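Regression test case RT-17, inverse folding.

Input:
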């Protein structure tokens, strides 16, 4: 397994619509494992392949309590049912470090997907797991959580991220020259 670099917004690679995988083979299963290692190290509770530069329809999530692990690996996830009840939830994103905002989404979803063994699965998700899955699935469409916000709020967050990226680049340059 390997840790992958997480792309930070704004970056055009995060706006690309991901392609379906033909099947979950050794390469895709390996990508899922690498994504989980990357997500845990970040630390985070979800990660989509486009966030690590792979434009394929693969996500990993784990909303287990701290100290526990219950990873879910999904290829080609598809919401087959969503509850009419919608709830606001404060979301953050590994590709938008230190930025948080309330996003309203369906409280429950039923998702069909291929697991890491290329077996079709269906999962009924509620609360945080439902939010996390929907958030990661948005990445597969090139949608970030800030795209659900007002233009003003989104613009403020993107400006902060541009400053964050400049500061990180300057930090890396400083380390190289030291």
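Golden output:
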């Amino acid at each position: 397994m390997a840790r992958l670099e997480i792309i930070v917004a704004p970056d055009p690679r995060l706006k690309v619509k991901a392609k379906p995988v033909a099947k979950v083979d050794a390469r895709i299963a390996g990508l899922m494992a690498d994504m989980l290692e990357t997500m845990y190290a970040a630390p985070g509770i979800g990660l989509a392949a486009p966030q690590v530069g792979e434009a394929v329809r693969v996500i990993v999530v784990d909303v287990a309590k701290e100290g526990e692990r219950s990873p879910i690996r999904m290829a080609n996830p598809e919401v087959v049912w969503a509850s009419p009840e919608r709830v606001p939830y404060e979301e953050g994103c590994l590709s938008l470090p230190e930025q948080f905002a309330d996003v309203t989404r369906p409280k429950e979803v039923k998702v069909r997907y291929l697991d890491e063994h290329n077996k079709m699965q269906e999962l009924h998700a509620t609360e945080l797991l439902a939010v996390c899955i929907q958030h990661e699935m948005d990445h597969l469409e090139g949608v970030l959580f800030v795209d659900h916000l007002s233009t003003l709020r989104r613009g403020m967050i993107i400006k902060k991220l541009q400053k964050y990226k400049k500061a990180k680049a300057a930090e890396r340059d400083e380390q190289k020259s030291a």
